[in-house]
Design a protein that fits this description.
The complex is a heterodimer of chains A (404) and B (259). Chain A has 13 helices and 3 strands. Chain A is mostly helical and 404 residues long. The termini of chain A are close together. In chain B, a hairpin with a 6-residue loop joins β2 and β3. The longest helix of chain B has 13 residues. The two termini of chain B are 31 Å apart. The relative contact order of chain B is 0.20. Classes of the chains: A mainly alpha (404), B alpha+beta (259). The interface between A and B is large, with 50 and 57 residues. β2 of chain A pairs antiparallel with β2 of chain B, so a sheet runs across the interface.
Chain lengths: 404, 259
């Protein structure tokens, strides 16, 4: 590998400022949506006492899961020593931070009392996986920030490998924590499973890489930097493998449940009779977000071509859409299925016992979620404008023959 | 989790030894001086014993409720009405978001057609999942077994609602009016049955139990499960009773007879 030269993007073009303005507008409307929800109370949202986590959680969890996955590109370069990935590492770290901050912003602003963030930061119940996650999130920000600094400060480069290992392990624990938020819920039939932790890790690999590919391509296009097919193709094939891993864990998740007679009901709901959830699961998550992108990616010739390039972009976009569907099915679909108070009995009450719970996302919830994405976008575009995250060129010729 | 004896409570308002007018006046003053005071941190070790103001709820007591389903009529909602009145729960005509601390659940066996009705509320588990998952410790169990939410540290994350197997908790979805001083609530926080902790600390029975015995079927019995001489202990020793979802191993303080 030749010496990698990084440089800031110019960031003075009309296109840059239009993008910044659009992202800023979405971020602002997300904030306004949160203020609206806090002022009137959550009854103005689609959430209720049955579906307690709604659309904001779908966005937040997607972003947080993708954040840890976005860091993988850096890890592959430093921890696993793949030379080809090294120039991609800085952007990987920045994107991981940006996605996490965007997700956390959504999560916090959807709290019933976001003004009590300081309580959440200072008062802990150490038996709560949520409390562990607060440490894991804050720690992730610190670890990745240090990792980035070591990468960017030439005198400190010798510590990069150790920091990269720490960041890689941290991100595995972090996503284990995110998955276990659901895995530890013993009374929820759709969640109560140890497979949630590895499933979420697999999802993070896939979603994070898909976002990374799109951001990398957009950043290089926008700043008129060359991006060699070898980079895009390699990332694309890796994405194909990650998609397969997600499908594998999804299969295990549902097979395990199907085998237990007590869980057949919830499985029938998600897989066959669940209406929107069944549609999202099969059509969007499995087919559009899994099988189709996998087919697109594995058909890509290793040598690369313009056609392959657009296929990878399409596949990445499909993975993101499928990922949102997957998180929606897990979060909302899992709550739509009623709790089993009396196994084998029919129950009814004035509090929606024994019925499929209804949820319709409201505009403020979607606005808040999009605001989180916009915040992530703002962090990325201003990050690459003020600091040297992007290599000056990612032309295929910038690689020598060794190591990749 | 132990009782928070260091809470900034104004304990005089719930001192079980006070029964005089003067005591009530002092209680009113306490409320006026410190609105939204914690309602826990004080509790009678034994309702018959007066105890010091700085004394915490006793772990020697396990408050519980026994519900006899043979006496619980499907159409009767006296317990629900009494709870709403006692705790100032007002609906907004939005059943999906309105709070319910206690509800009547009809249970039917599809194989036999046999049906029953029962009141469902916070089961005051010995090992409450809501307490385990709460990130800030706002969800907590008092030493005497009553599970409560500290409205000052609840951040409204709703994880406890996801974790509760009984759907016992409600999130306050909108602004509140005319709150009861003995049952403070808060928009954006989670709440559930307190077993009328303010009444228990005042040596009285929970409102649902009282109403059930006064005007309902007399199905509910409140008492100390740890005291072998209490009526509830004698009843659970004599008759077969059940805890709902006992398979989860949570050891609820609410038991059902005839289920």
């Amino acid at each position: 590998m030749k010496q990698i030269v990084y440089s800031e993007i110019d960031g003075r073009s009309t296109g840059f400022w239009i993008l910044a303005a659009v992202l800023g507008a979405f971020a602002l409307s997300g904030l306004l949506a949160a203020l609206y929800m806090e002022h009137y109370g959550h009854y103005v949202t689609g959430m209720n006492n049955q579906i307690v986590w709604g659309m904001p959680h779908v966005f937040a969890i997607f972003l947080i899961v993708a954040a840890s996955g976005a860091l993988n590109v850096a890890s592959i370069g430093t921890v696993f020593g793949k030379t080809l990935y090294k120039p991609l590492g800085r952007l990987s770290g920045l994107l991981a931070l940006a996605l996490l901050l965007g997700g956390l912003a959504v999560l916090v602003l959807d709290l019933g009392r976001p003004d009590r963030l300081i309580v959440a930061m200072t008062t802990y119940n150490f038996k709560s996986i949520f409390a562990w996650n607060i440490y894991l999130y804050v720690g992730f920000i610190v670890v990745v920030a240090v990792y980035l600094w070591l990468q960017m400060e030439r005198r400190m480069n010798r510590y990069v490998k150790a920091a990269g290992m720490a960041a890689f392990l941290w991100r595995l624990v972090l996503t284990t924590g995110t998955g276990s938020i659901f895995g530890f819920l013993v009374a929820r039939e759709a969640y109560d499973s140890a497979v949630m932790a590895p499933l979420f890790i697999a999802m993070s690999f896939s979603f994070g890489l898909a976002v990374y590919i799109l951001v990398l391509i957009a950043a290089c296009r926008g700043s008129e930097r060359e991006l060699g097919d070898v980079f895009v193709n390699r990332l694309g094939r890796l994405l194909g493998i990650f998609i397969a891993v997600v499908l594998y864990f999804t299969t295990v998740q549902h097979l395990t449940n199907l085998y237990a007679a007590e869980h057949v009901g919830v499985e029938r709901f998600i897989l066959i009779e669940g209406g929107i959830y069944t549609f999202l699961f099969w059509a969007i998550q499995v087919i559009a977000g899994g099988l189709i992108p996998m087919a697109l990616l594995f058909r890509t010739p290793a040598s690369g071509s313009g056609n392959a390039y657009s296929r990878i972009v399409l596949a990445s976009a499909l993975v993101i859409i499928g990922g949102f569907a997957q998180v929606y099915v897990i979060v909302i679909g899992g709550q739509a299925w009623p709790l089993t108070l009396f196994p084998g009995m029919e129950v009814s009450s004035s509090f929606y016992d024994g019925v499929i719970n209804a949820y319709a996302p409201s505009l403020p919830e979607i606005g808040l979620g999009l605001g989180g994405i916009a915040l992530s976008g703002l962090i990325v575009i201003f990050g690459i404008k003020v600091l040297r995250f992007l290599p000056a060129t990612l032309a295929t010729s910038s690689l020598d023959s060794q190591g990749h | 989790m132990s009782t928070k004896s260091n809470s900034p409570a104004a304990p005089e308002e719930f001192d079980p030894s006070r029964r005089s007018f003067l005591g009530s006046a002092a209680a009113a003053a306490g409320v006026a001086l410190a609105p939204g005071v914690f309602l826990y941190g004080v509790g009678a070790a034994n309702p018959a014993d007066a105890r010091g103001l700085d004394e915490a709820a006793s772990g020697n007591v396990r408050w519980g409720i026994l519900i006899d389903l043979n006496r619980c009529d499907s159409g009767c909602t006296e317990c629900v009405t009494a709870c709403s009145k006692e705790n100032g729960l007002q609906g907004h005509g939005r059943p999906a978001t309105d709070a319910q601390w206690i509800r009547k659940v009809d249970v039917r066996d599809p194989a036999t057609g046999h049906s029953q009705s029962l009141p469902m509320m916070c089961q005051h588990c010995a090992d409450p999942p809501c307490v385990d998952v709460c990130p800030t410790g706002a969800s907590f169990k008092r030493a005497d077994g009553i599970v409560l939410v500290d409205k000052h540290t609840c951040i409204g994350c709703r994880y406890c609602m996801s974790a509760c197997p009984y759907k016992a908790r409600s999130f306050v979805h909108e602004a509140l009016e005319d709150q009861k001083t003995h049952a403070p609530r808060g928009k954006g926080t989670v709440e559930s049955c307190t077993m009328c902790v303010h009444r228990i600390d005042d040596d009285r029975q929970p409102a649902c139990v009282e109403a059930c015995n006064d005007t309902g079927g007399g199905a509910m019995l409140f008492g100390d499960l740890n005291d072998p001489e209490s009526e509830i202990s004698k009843r659970v020793a004599k008759y077969a009773t059940q805890q709902i979802r006992s398979d989860l191993g949570l050891d609820p303080g609410v038991r059902y007879q005839g289920l």
